[in-house]
Amino acid sequence: MEAESEFKEYYAKNMRGISGWFKARAYTIERWLYAAHRITGILIVLFVLAHFYSTGWHPGLWWDALLGIIVTFHTANGIRLILAELGFAVGKPLLVKKPSQRPVSIEGVQRYLVVFALVLFFVLAAIWAYYALVVQPMMG
Amino acid sequence: MRESTVMFLHYITAILIAITGLIHLLANNDPGIGAVIKANSALYFGNMAIFLAALLYHAFNGVRVILIEMVPDKCWTKWISWAVLIVGIVTYAVGLQVLMVALGFA
Ligand code: HEM
Questions:
Q1: Residue A8: strand, helix, or coil
Q2: I want to staple A72 with a disulfide (CB 3.0 to 4.6 A). Which of A40, A50, A125, B79 is the partner?
Q3: According to the model, what pLDDT value does residue A106 have?
Q4: What whole-number distance in Å separates Cα of residue A67 and Cα of residue A47?
Q5: Ligand 1 centroid vs B96 CA: distance in angstroms?
Q6: Closest residue to B72, CB basis, from A11, A52, A85
Q7: Structure confidence at residue A29 as a pLDDT band (50, 70, 90)
């Protein structure tokens, strides 16, 4: 019974649905990155479905560069998420006593991972844009 | 399958997508490296077979995770999971068929 009421409480908390993704108060940067991760994930699925339906379909030139931004963000941030979710670089748990106190799980190495993911994102997006805007037009 | 196993596979497929997806991008967008990869049709096909499987698992499980979070109900979760699994397998079968025809394997 105890477990059931906890379950119901958990469900009740999720009642905001999609609007909850943007309930931005007190978000850390990781939480923003996660919202962006979900949105880019959905956008890639939409692209992939079109890419399958008319096999090999591409939006073309500048849209391809935009697609690159979406995909490389999801990839770079995804690598960070995999590390965090498998427990790497998370740090030891610590009792959080004040609302202003940040959990250690998002301090220290985690912060470097965020920077790493963002830098990787910019580099990959630039390489992709080069191929989309320079190499592809030359290939015809 | 336990939800933790499903998610573990979600991360494994993500890594597979990163590797096979890079090969796919190079094959089709880099004139030099692309020619080398395409000259070896077994490599091209093998890469595509793995890429497609990993991508479909990751994409459809991603959609499933979002859906069951929005409709948190045991019964719905079950049906959503089955529907996604069946659509995913059918898509893989059709995709492999299209690939084999395009590469002249079938
Ligand atoms: C390049 C490699 C990729 C990496 C490293 C990656 C990584 C990840 C990770 C770690 C998650 C889990 C987030 C979580 O629930 O904790 C995720 C979710 C997701 N991914 Fe990917 N992904 C990649 C490519 C793709 C592709 C190609 C697609 C689409 C076809 C895609 C679609 C999704 C979707 C829809 C979700 C669910 C979003 C959510 O749970 O909020 N991903 N990805």
A1: helix
A2: A125
A3: 64
A4: 8
A5: 22
A6: A11
A7: confident
B24: closest chain A residue by CA: A56
Tell which residue, A65, A59, A58, has the closest CA to residue A133: A65
Name the 3-class secondary structure at A137.
helix
- Do B66 and A45 lie within an 8 Å CB cutoff? no
The domain locations on chain B are 3-102
Q: What is the mean pLDDT of residues A114-131?
A: 96
DSSP code, position A14: G
Interval A133-138 mean pLDDT: 91
pLDDT (tens digit per residue) in A58-99: 998 899 999 999 999 999 999 999 998 888 877 777 777 777
Q: How far is A110 from chain B (nearest CA, A)?
A: 18
Residue A15 pLDDT class (50, 70, 90 cuts):
low
Residues whose CB falls within 8 Å of the CB of residue B25, separated by 6 or more in sequence, listed in order: A131
H or E stretch covering B53: helix B41-70
The CATH fold of domain B3-102: 3 helical TM bundles of succinate and fumarate reductases (1.20.1300)
Residue of B nearest to A46 (CA): B59
- Say what the pLDDT of residue A10 is: 62
A86 touches chain B (CB under 8 A): yes
Report the pLDDT value the prediction gives residue A13, as an integer from 0 to 100.
63
Query: What does the alpha-carbon distance between residue A119 and residue B83 come to, in Å, rounded to a whole number?
Result: 38
